[in-house]
Amino acid sequence: MNRGPSYFSLTAMVLGFAFLYLPIVLLIIFSFNESRLVTVWAGFSTKWYVELFRNEQLLQAAWVTLRVAVTSATLATVLGTMAAMALTRQRRFFGRTLFSGMIYAPLVMPEVILGLSMLLLFVAMDQARGFWTIMIAHTTFTMCYVAVVVQSRLAGFDRSLEEAAMDLGCPPLRTFFSITLPQIMPGVIAGWMLAFTLSLDDLVIASFTTGPGATTLPMKIYSQVRLGVTPEINAVCTILIGIVTLGVIAVSITSKRQRLQQERDERMAMEQ
Amino acid sequence: MVTKDLPVKKTKKGSPLLDYVMRLLPFFWLLLFFLVPFIIVYKISLSTIALSIPPYEPMLSLKEGIEGVKTFWDGLSWDNYIFLTEDPLYLSAYLSSLKIAFFSTVIALFVAYPIAYGMARSPREWQPTLLMLVILPFWTSFLIRVYAWIGILKSDGVLNQLLLWLGVIDSPLTILNTNTAVYIGIVYSYLPFMILPLYASLEKLDGSLLEAAEDLGCPPWKVFWRVTLPLSMPGVIAGCFLVFIPAVGEFVIPDILGGSETLMIGKTLWVEFFSNRDWPLASAVAVILLLILVIPITLFQRHQAKQEGHD
Question: What is the complex's ipTM, to 2 decimals?
Answer without folding.
Answer: 0.85
